[in-house]
Amino acid sequence: MARRKPDPQRTSSSRPEAVQLRARRSPKLVAVGVLAIVLGALGAAALYSAANDEAGAVTVTRHIPRGTEIVAEDLAVVQVPAGFAVDTLHADDLDSLVGATALTDLPEGSFPLSSHVGEDPLPEGQALVGFRMSHGQLPVSPMPSGTTIQLVDLSTTAPAPADQAPAESAPAPQPAAAPSSTAPMQAVVAVAPTMLEDGASFTLDVLVALEHAEQVAQLAAAGELALVVVKEP
């Protein structure tokens, strides 16, 4: 009996269409995927923690006009997220603000800073006078705010020396003005001198006694004032 020749189609090494090869997983890709998942989880945890991490900050409960003394009822503590974009004072600083003077208007709901409060810039019985002085009328040394000074009246001239005779051709001398009996006026630098663009003059603010304010302003406007730094008594 003759053998049947094998059917070349049946002896083919091809696999049935339903049979699929199992894909091989790359260990590197698996590691990268795991790392991405871990980093994503850590990032989400950090965002959640930042959103829920809060700190106490001092806020203004009602409008505080400039120059007003701050009382406890003007302030409160509110919780703000950590890393709040606005600068704030910690809740522990609230007591240090009570009794201070508002140096600027503080609207309700604002967050006061240390630079917004301080001592009363204009104590009772004193006046703030600003003027312009040239080189030679004030020392060149630094004079920060709070420096004790004296203001000297230059509006009167000193008498001529007794042994100085006038020239024959000169007209008869006029009586010399009597020396000013006004003693130097005590003052305190409120705003340090600032050089102007001309490079030859300065502006500054000083605190003087209220009764001397008008005189100081007039002398300063006439350029007949000199400033002397003295040691605080």
At a glance:
The protein is α+β, with helices and mostly antiparallel strands and about 230 residues long. The chain has helices at about 25-50, 95, 215-220; strands at about 55-60, 75-80, 100, 115-120, 125-135, 150-155, 185-195, 200-210, 225-230.
Structure write-up:
The protein has about 230 residues and is of the alpha+beta class. The protein has two domains: about 100 residues, Antifreeze-like/N-acetylneuraminic acid synthase C-terminal domain (Type Iii Antifreeze Protein Isoform Hplc 12, Alpha-Beta Complex); about 80 residues. About 15% of the residues lie in helices and about 25% in strands. It has three helices and nine strands, in the order H-E-E-H-E-E-E-E-E-E-H-E. It has a five-stranded antiparallel β-sheet. It has a two-stranded antiparallel ribbon with strand order 1-2. The chain is elongated and about 105 Å long. About 5% of the residues have low confidence.
